[in-house]
Automatic annotation (TrEMBL):
Location of the C2HC zinc finger plants domain: 27-57
InterPro entries: Methyltransf_16, SAM-dependent_MTases_sf, Znf-C2HC_3
Protein name per UniProt: C2HC zinc finger plants domain-containing protein
Superkingdom classification of source: Eukaryota
SUPFAM superfamilies: S-adenosyl-L-methionine-dependent methyltransferases
One GO cellular component term: cytosol
Length: 305
């Protein structure tokens, strides 16, 4: 199997200006400031209530969440500001691919309302947004012309590709279909309705993409949870095509507890001779790289692209 490794820098935005440390506690009192007993920071008295209820770092540290992105003050920031900081909070996400500028895609994303906490620890929560490695994978498919090989086209079976954990915006699956693959997009059942709706709303752009790449496949949607027995309908789809020749997987390895279930599913999908998987991911906290040690136990090998 092959992997894509594109480490990106993550920027942090501090919304509470830090106060300067003057001449100690007495100077702090004279300046109308106090030392927070929880975090030790110097805070203006006018901001005491806001600091202790919203901004104190110890508030996040006391949380039982273990993810950095959940350990900040983001829950108290308006959705408008969140949308400026991260595309995952935009209700609509436009996408323009380099090889098809006249076929823009627009995806409807499932975002949290201002009164509801977006919880990425819920199994299907992250399936509602477009993740950037998906775009990298889509461009790579075209750059390397990863359409079906001649052997796949002449063995009497329809060449099949499968997108694992496709999410609501499986751009690489669209591209694979436009390159001639019959693509099955798979994810948890809760995610698939929005994925289908987005495909239908982008059908004209998909047709234009097929014209630009000179081929046309098809896109289907069926459930496939990592590590579980394949649902009957999904298994029949795969078997009717003699297995899959290409597996696409974007940003599915950032949680270490999902590594083994994903490896189990990959090992079953990649039993077709000559099949390969393209795994796109962003390095966040090094959990991603641990995945490639896990797959060694399932007779899978990887190499960077």
């Amino acid at each position: 199997s092959l992997k894509i490794d594109f480490p990106l820098c993550r920027a942090s935005l501090c919304l509470e200006p830090s106060a300067g440390f003057g001449g100690g506690a007495m100077a702090a009192e004279e300046d109308g400031s106090y030392v927070c007993p929880a975090c030790g920071g110097l805070v203006r008295l006018q901001r005491r209530q806001a600091h202790e209820t919203l901004w104190c770092p110890k508030l996040a540290a006391s949380s039982d969440r273990d993810d950095d992105d959940d350990a900040d003050a983001g829950d108290h920031v308006s959705m408008e500001v969140k949308a400026l900081l991260s595309p995952q909070y935009s209700a609509r996400m436009p996408v323009e691919l380099s090889f098809a500028p006249n076929a823009p895609l627009v995806f409807t994303q499932d975002v949290a309302e201002s009164t509801f906490r977006y919880d990425r620890h819920v199994d299907f929560a992250t399936g509602g947004q477009l993740w950037w490695s998906e775009l990298v994978l889509a461009e790579l498919l075209v750059l390397q012309r990863r359409g079906p090989r001649a052997t796949e086209q002449t063995r009497g079976l329809r060449p099949a590709a499968l997108a694992l954990g496709c999410g609501t915006a499986p751009v690489s699956a669209y591209v694979a279909a436009a390159l001639g693959w019959e693509v099955l997009c798979t994810d948890l059942p809760q995610v698939l309705p929005s994925a289908r709706n987005n495909f239908e709303s982008n059908k004209n752009s998909f047709d234009a993409m097929c014209t630009a790449l000179g081929s046309e496949g098809c896109v289907d949607f069926l459930p496939l949870p990592f590590g579980d027995e394949f649902p009957e309908e999904t298994r029949k789809w795969i078997e009717s095509r003699g297995g899959v020749g290409l597996v696409l997987c974007s940003d599915c390895i950032w949680q270490e507890h999902r590594h083994r279930p994903l490896a189990v599913t990959l090992s079953e999908l990649l039993q077709t001779p000559g099949s390969e998987a393209l795994v796109g991911y962003q390095v966040r906290q090094h959990e991603e790289r641990k995945f490639f040690g896990v797959i060694d136990h399932y007779n899978l090998r990887s190499e960077p692209l």
